[in-house]
UniProtKB/TrEMBL annotation:
This is Peroxiredoxin. It holds the Pfam family OsmC. Signal peptide: none annotated. InterPro entries: KH_dom-like_a/b, OsmC/Ohr_fam, OsmC/Ohrsf.
Length: 140
């Protein structure tokens, strides 16, 4: 896997993945409160949620669950001293579908977070990673 970061200006950077996709990232600079894009740590958190969501969708589809949407709301706490790594990460999964089995959702999430998701495995080296979920019947 390869990627590239190029400085654009101030604290703005352009990240390009090995597959050719680009994203603007950066942090506040000077007196402005504006950010040009997600910060690097926000991208780590998004990557963790995206990795796990991908697994959960795949596992639930393989178990023939009638899912219509999967969302992950993430919260994280960082250490107070540098390098300010994540110390706590919580993933809240919202699964929307018709007749979705809660036990299968619980198992899919556990398999992802504890076994398959490489991003959550890396984050778990510095942070306590927890998760919960809710299943919503489609149309409610």
């Amino acid at each position: 896997m390869k990627a590239r970061i190029k400085w654009a200006e101030n604290r703005t950077f352009i990240g390009t993945s090995g597959t050719g996709h680009s994203i603007v990232l950066g942090t506040k600079h000077g007196d402005s409160d504006a950010t040009p894009g997600p910060s690097p740590m926000e991208l780590v958190l998004l990557g963790t949620g995206g990795c796990s969501a991908y697994d959960v969708v795949s596992i639930l589809e393989k178990s023939r669950q009638n899912i219509e949407d999967v969302q992950v709301e993430m919260t994280a706490e960082r250490a107070e001293t540098d390098p300010k790594v994540f110390v706590k990460v919580h993933l809240h999964f919202i699964v929307i579908g018709r007749g979705v089995d809660q036990k299968r959702v619980e198992r899919a999430i556990a398999l992802s977070v504890d076994k398959y998701c490489s991003a959550s495995a890396m984050v778990a080296k510095s942070a306590e990673v927890t998760h919960d979920f809710e299943v919503i019947e489609a149309g409610e």
